[in-house]
Amino acid sequence: MPVHQQDFLGALSAVTIFGPGLIGGSLGLALQKRLPDCDLRFWTRASSVEKTAAVFPSALVTHDACKAVEGASLIVFCCPVEAMEKPAREMANAVDPGAVITDAGSVKAAVVRMMEPLFGNRFVGAHPMAGSEQSGVQFANDSLYEGATCILTPTETTSKEALAQVNDFWSLAGCRTLQMSPEHHDRLVARSSHLPHALASALVNTVAETTPEALEVTGSGFRDTTRIAAGPESMWAGIFLENRREVLAALGELHQKIDDFAGFLERGDYEAMEKFLSRAREVRKDLE
Predict the structure, then answer these.
(1) What value does the mean pLDDT of the chain take?
(2) Pick from 41, 158, 140, 156: which is nearest to 102 by CA?
């Protein structure tokens, strides 16, 4: 472990996680495993305090945002993007001057626009590319982030020290980190993450609404392709709306490919269809 990382982790005495669902809960478990002496705190809705405390009996669990961040050296927002602003504003004046703030939101430009005015150069946007179709702290696991890519989205005003600390933090959780602008992040994940979820949901709804009896004869192909459609609708609705411009552009690009495919069928063009399928197969093989 590099010396600068040892210094940072040694000073990481208290971490506050806002939103201990699957993402925040898994992060908490990973920290307990990798940094057992760290003082963990969780902020959650009043109705979820008892459930979170059952998973983290030794941690402070509260619905008081200011109490949650008292003395914290690092604060992580893991709640849905549309739910970040209210607790962030409530606790902004209670944060220690040297504390660093990051997040795990699936959209970055909107989060950065919201957080930088509150926390200045101490905020570093992040998106760990990890999760599942399940939701809730009861599904949290300490290995969720192992081997995952975490995208950091610093801006021109981001403190270099804060960026290094957030990089070390997500590395500690098990992630491989890389950096890009918030806007470039939103463009890429619209194609790699948001579009697949929209497509899976559209496929399920198409079959369910037009030929529901086909659901009785589905195989692993249909189930594998549509697995992510089982994700929490409230979270995904927020993601799509926050990144609507890039998602709409991605949907337009996909629509063109579907039109191309329909054209092959209409013309009975075997050669064009084979070429289309071959390219997809080769690209997919490279993802293994």
Answers:
(1) 91
(2) 158
